[in-house]
Amino acid sequence: MQLQQNISLKPFNTFGIDVSAEYFVELEHAAMLEEIANDAALPKQVHALGGGSNILLSKAVSGLVVHNKLKGIVIEKEDSEHVWLRVEAGEIWHKLVMYAISNGWAGIENLALIPGTVGAAPIQNIGAYGVEAKETIESVTGWHWEERAFIDYTNADCNFGYRDSIFKGRLKDKIFISSVIFKLNKKPTFHTAYGPIQHELERMNIAELSIKAIADAVIAIRSSKLPDPKKIGNAGSFFKNPAISTEHFEMLQTNYPGIPCYPFSETMMKVPAGWLIEQCGWKGYRKGDTGVHEKQALVIVNYGKASGEEIWALSGEIMQSVKERFGINLEREVQVW
After folding, report:
1. 315-337 pLDDT, tens digit each
2. Cα–Cα distance measured from residue 280 to residue 271, given in angstroms and rounded to the nearest whole number
3. Catalytic site residues?
4. Which numeric CATH code is attached to 233-336?
5. Per-residue b/e over 238-250, b at no fewer than 16 CB within 10 Å?
6. pLDDT on residue 294
């Protein structure tokens, strides 16, 4: 185990925030987790780091940062209709999506080009264009720091919700996810009704619908409106899409006839956070090196040397303005260290 001290985390987070980690180690094998737990000389405070695409570093990180580099995709079992894949948590999510598509396995094609690693998928219950990771996750395996053992969690155990799971709640900071089993379909069910997918498929002149065509459409949509973190620092969608009561929505609709929405439940409607933020005039806003992306108001960006504190402060101003204008409380999706 190669332990490093006072290392800059700038290369390891897509916001490009330059803060240091007190201790840092790259996890190449799952067995190293037990080694770390049993090493009395190491800090007890441990931070799991994957692709760094959903975190905001607000200050120097105390304790030990464990960078998940676990790799591997294997078939656990299969039958005539499904295949079960065990995927190591350090695998790149988009690579898994492309691997599944190349083999004709359906279920995650709508989640193409979402940044980050596989280990983050169950924590965040990542989702896009009408599909969520929870629909394909069979189980999650993780190292429990207090129990000092690897524990398997079924889909039901994970307590999945909208961009939420038990790993963000009761088990936050207690579990280091090492692998995930996905149950994928050999016979696809296409999801094209959500958002602009159908329009993009038509624009691309797709004659025959397939999981690859859907993924290509999603990739084109995401590429057109979301900035590349390699060119400008960002963590993708900074806020969750809020769900409000039908009564609240109907009240807003009288003043904003064009307000977009998606049914969330029998009594709740989901409103795009990006639309709310844009209506408040934030799209394209810039102050110093922090700002709101010119093409997508849901994305806060770092133009170069913005600090985590500055980005956090801007997100707070945005939340306050949406609250004052629409009576809606936005919730940050990005995790803050």
Report:
1. 999 999 999 999 999 999 999 99
2. 14
3. 163, 237, 333
4. 3.90.78.10
5. bbbbbbbeeebbe
6. 94
